[in-house]
Amino acid sequence: MTLPLFKTLLSRLLMLAALVPVLASAQEMRHQPTPFSVWLDFKALASPKPPKVSLPIWLESLQSDAVEGPGGQIARTTFRLRFRPLGELNRDLLLRVLFDDVKGRSPVVTGWTETGTKVFEHGPFGAGLNLPTSASLTLPMLGVSYVDIAVPGDGGNMRGAFLSSLRRGETLYSLDFATPADVNDAFDNLPSIPPAADDSLLFGRVRATIDAGIVTLIPRETIRQTWEFELAAAPLVAVVSFEILNADPLSPLEVVVNDQLLGPAAMRTPDLADPGYLGVYRPLDRGVRFRYAGWLQCQKAIPGAALQQGINKIELRLPGEAGPVAVRSLDLQLKTHWQNF
Question: DSSP letter string over 278-333?
């Protein structure tokens, strides 16, 4: 080895050694503190050896109560959250209830004063889709001593509840466009966009709701769904958007336009810390598959050449390895010739 080459290698090794402490400190794991939030796993807390849960200072206790009906069967189960009044810390709370959407087992959320006066009631939630889902609420807690989450039956379809303190702040938004959501999701999930009643035109973009309802796609039963719509002229480019429930992030729906397969739709997934992710083991899978118990926004860009004047078809297909899902709020945007092009 020549001396100049040896010096070069030595200097590189010294530089690498100097970087090691920096890289090591950058990879240090720090627990993210959540003193004003809590995830209550109802199934785990009901087990013989329940996990220890650090409750926020404003949450005093969680209790469950079952009421028997005729024949000795459980007619109703109530999960009661009892609170301590702590001013701004829990003046407003975010409550997200996670459950399996079983027909006849829809949860209802009520808030009560210490003397038994009802302050609010929300629900029942769900549409009987037989899929994991969730419902998010903003609860005004002034005068509220406890909150009940009640469900018909033994409560076996209830997964849990996420609670978090809310802080008020000022938001700036454009007056000519849709107002922002009242609450920012704790895990960056985008809010649902309600389908528009009428078509709209803006800066060369035409937007129309194709279907505001809900359809389900089930493996080996209904693995595809087709919608037809008519266009006066083919656009330059288009985007189809929809929301999906019980989505598998690794198996997004495939989009077919006029019998042309365009590939999987893009899915906006929340933070992986979100308790809405439900791990599922299947016999032929090597690892864990995850589903998301909530509605996620999806979209797919469509080349203008894939559309035509007259009748067009959009089809959503389940991939072979996917589980059951529900789809709602199918929306289409068309970019047309515009005076500013």
Answer: EEE--TT-SS-EEEEEEEEEEEEEEEGGG--SEEEEEEEE--TT---EEEEEEEEE
